Structure formats: structure tokens, C-alpha cells
Amino acid sequence: MSVLSLEKQLLELKEAIQQTNKGVVLEGKLIHIVFISFGEPESRAYVCSGVSNTFEESWNKALVLAEKKIKNNKLNPKWFKTDIVTQIKEFSMRDFKNYIAGIKINYFREGIAFDSNFKLSFLEQEVNANGFIYENKQYNLKNLVWKNINFYIKYNLGLKLLLDNDVVPKVYTFKTAGMFHDGSTYFKLGYDWLDNGRRYVENLDISLVKFIIEKSSEFLASQVGEDGQFRYGYFPCFDKEINHYNILRHASTTYSMIEAYEITKSHSLQKAITRALSFLVNEGVKYIEDNEGQKCGFVIEKTDNNSIKLGANAAAVLALSKYTEVFSDYKYMETLEKLSQGIAYFQNEDGSFVHVLNYPDLSIREKHRIIYYDGEAAFSLMRLYSIDKNKKWLDMVEKAFEYFIQNKYWRYNDHWLSCCSYELFLHKPLHKYLEFNLKNVEGILDFCLARETTFPTLLELLMASNKLIDKCRKDNIHREVIAGFDLKKLETATIHRAKHQLNGLMFPEVAMYFKVPKNILWGFYIRHHSFRVRIDDIEHNLSGYCNYYQRIRGV
């Protein structure tokens, strides 16, 4: 698509935003407050504002400031965004602190002004991307971080101020309506609490889902170095890279990339997958003989006290099985067999699993760490069974499920257990596996509809149940079980979660306010963890959307 000139971009935005402009009443007067944000992938966006009695004057004030800043800083903005204020509330500093105390950290979704003239006013995106609000978890308090605020004022406005609670007696919060231009076209932005500031999407159609899969999987591909290791993640407010590493997440992220490749057929993604798997197998897997002399493969988590996690073996089997299936390349079959034999070492006689072993003596470190390991291990064995038809893996999973059912594991609403019960049902279409899957999802449907965080594993869980129900309908089996399930609620929850996960995507209109947008653009983030963009945050979103795409495509 052709890139429009700066003047053309701004004119399109002005004409679009003007249609929604009504002004806002402040201290008994009708005024118009306009913000123009502009940025590029390499650095944090700048924001200029204008306040006047008419929209035209307010726009021109903001525009003059923007043009001056672009010229003085020799900028070449790619992105432009404009916002108009639609609602204002006034607080004393004490009341403002009480107000934000009841809001989850980073879920404050309003702009802030520190004066009634709006000379010191900041969009919600500026507030959150620059860490204006800090939570003291020990005392359950939230405060304004004046150090960060003063630093940003100097960056954006060029003013050296020393604001603090004693200097600022009042705080004005405000809501906005906005438009964003990416250089080719403009988008209307959402203005509701959770959707605020990112492009408005009325219907999440198949083309948009594919676009998201392409963009986020290519982001992951760009994070794989020549040695096959990922850049693990970022805290984007101040571009702080996460330095530690987790080989389990390396494996599961690679699995999601292969799911994406199945849809996109991207050459660059394929090359990144190849490098990532080579690193996993060559650097992560070690072979140890068990008590019976059986050679087992284990994925080693390299820390000060090296450990072997059941979940790491499972993630590796998932990734290598998916690679074998998608690329019809069987070079990892021996590795898969040894890693699965390693999973067998974790399984107890009653079907349950030990979770963490010591390396290299294979003694038990933790009998239980996290519920997700169980379902992930069983699911990985089913994926391998679908390739090699080794009955040993199927027997292990059936044994595990007897334990899961007996101990009511559906109470945990684990997405891996839903995925596994679906795979198991494909080979053993028994009532008990369908019932388990439906119980696993039924208990979380209300949560899916009400939860404000993006919580990406929910969509994975929902998709596994959707696929299982589709299978029963297609084969005309277990109709009485399906008839007693709330299919409409499942469908509503699925569509809702798929749309809601867009609130965790680093669209350019979101990324532009962080320190180095190109490091996070089209990744997925966790808002309440300081907008963290980590490979596993992306993988779960990506897997959910891949499964959603395949279903609406009819695959």
C-alpha cells in the first residue's frame, strides 16, 4: 500500500475526528481539547495538544506545535494519532488517590491533567507507557510517580519541572475519542474501558485473524537469533530486556510458531523454527539411562541448580511432533521417542505424574509444581501417538486420565487438559472423555465472559471444546451429552475472548507510546505485569488464534 504524505495523513485524521467532535464543558465553559500524537518505530511518540473555544483553533494549535517538534527534532513520523476530549472529572489529590486505589494496576484507562488549562495533560497511553502510577503491593496503595512524570514532561514538552503532591492540588481525569493513521489508512479507535486507544473491531473476521497470526508469528521469528535462542522478552515502558531464560517456554513458543506456519507458510518463519528447534535439541536435551537401562531424553532447565521439568519434556514433544506433522520431516523421531520415554519416567503407578526431578541423578525435587504440567504431558503423548501409533503412549494417557477423572481434574479448567481430552477422544471416542472436556470448560464460561485481563489460555481451552463438539456433530455421536450443554454460551464466550484478546496486542497505535516501539510491535503483552511482552505471552495468544482461524475456516 502507498504511504501518504504527512499533510495528507493529518488531513484525513482531522476530517475523521471532526465528525465525532462535540467539545466538553470545563468550569462552565464549552471548550475543545485536541491531541496529536506522532511517532516512528525507533523511539517513543511525541504528543502535542491544543485547547480553545473551537475545534478548528484547537486543532491548529496542536498542529503548529507538532510541525515545530517534527522539524526541530528532524523526525520522520510514520504513525499519527489524534484524540479529542469527550469527558472531564475533577478530583482533589486525596480523592484521586482513593479513586485509583480501586483500579487494577495499569488498568487506569483515562487521561490525566494537572491544571485546569490542560497545559500539563497526558493521554491514558502516555500515563501507562511512562509509569505514572505505581502500586505498593505490601500496603495495597497506588501513588503518582513524580520522578517518571517530571522526566516525561522534559522529554515531551521540554520543560524542567519539579511537580509533586504539594505542588499539584487537583487532578483532572478525562476520556477521549480517537483516530489512528498508519501511513496508508486510518482507523477509528475504541473508547470503552478495555478497548480504549486501540483500533475498533466490530467483527473479528477470518482475514483479520490471519493478519494477526502473520504479524505476531513474524514478530516471534524476528526474536530468534542466529544461534536459535530467543530474545526472551521486554518490559516496554523503559525498554528493559528480560535477561533470564526458560527452555520450557522456548519449546512451547516454537510449537505455536509451527501452528502459525501451517497457516501462513512464511519462509522467514520456517527458518526461525528450524533454528529454534536445533537449539532446543542440541542445547536443551540430555540423555540418561533409567533404573532399567532404558535411555531417556530430558530437557534440562539450566539454572544454578539444574532441574528437569515434566512440562519442559512435554513442550519439546509437542514442538517436535508438530514439526514432524507439518513439515513431513521425520529427523526428530528418535529424539521424540527418547523424550517421551522421559515422560514415562515421571509417571507414577496410579497414573499421576511427578513434576520436577533433579539433574542428573533423577531424584524427585518436587512432586507437584503446577497443574498445567499434567495435561501438557498427556497432550504431548497423544500428539506423538498420532504420528507413530505406538500404543505405549496411548496407554500412558488413558492411565493418566483415569487418575484425572477420579480426582476431578476438570475443577482446574486447564487448557492443556481440554486439548488432550480432544486428542484422546479422536482415537477413543468414549463418553467419559467428552464429559471430562465439557466439565472442564463449563465451569469457566462465566469467568470467560467477565474477566477483564486478556488471559490467552482461555481461548485455547474454549477452542478445544468447540472442536470436540464439532467432531461429535459431524460423526453424529453422543448427541444426548451435547444436547445438555449450553452451546450458545460456549459460542458467545468464544467470540468474546477472541475479540477481547485484541486488547493484548501491540498494535502500532499502542506500541508507539513505549520507549522503543519496534522491539514490541505486533507482540502480545500482559497489561497488569507492566505491559510485559514475553515469548510465552505471545505463544498462548498465537495458539488460540491459530485454532480459532482453523475452525472458522472449516479445517
Compose a concise summary of this entry.
With 555 residues, the protein is of the alpha+beta class. It has helices spanning 6-18, 55-72, 93-101, 124-129, 146-157, 206-222, 247-264, 267-284, 310-327, 333-346, 372-388, 391-406, 415-427, 431-442, 445-450, 457-475, 479-483, 487-500, 508-511, 535-553, and strands at 24-26, 29-40, 43-52, 79-92, 111-113, 121-122, 133-136, 141-144, 170-181, 186-188, 233-235, 240-241, 285-289, 295-301, 307-309, 356-358, 364-366, 533-534.
Lay out the secondary structure.
Layout: H1 6-18, E1 24-26, E2 29-40, E3 43-52, H2 55-72, E4 79-92, H3 93-101, E5 111-113, E6 121-122, H4 124-129, E7 133-136, E8 141-144, H5 146-157, E9 170-181, E10 186-188, H6 206-222, E11 233-235, E12 240-241, H7 247-264, H8 267-284, E13 285-289, E14 295-301, E15 307-309, H9 310-327, H10 333-346, E16 356-358, E17 364-366, H11 372-388, H12 391-406, H13 415-427, H14 431-442, H15 445-450, H16 457-475, H17 479-483, H18 487-500, H19 508-511, E18 533-534, H20 535-553
Antiparallel strand pairs: 1-2, 2-3, 2-4, 4-9, 5-6, 5-9, 7-8, 9-10, 11-12, 11-18, 13-14, 14-15, 15-16, 16-17
Helix pairs in contact: 6-7, 6-8, 6-20, 7-8, 7-9, 7-20, 9-10, 9-11, 11-12, 11-13, 13-14, 13-16, 14-16, 16-18, 16-20
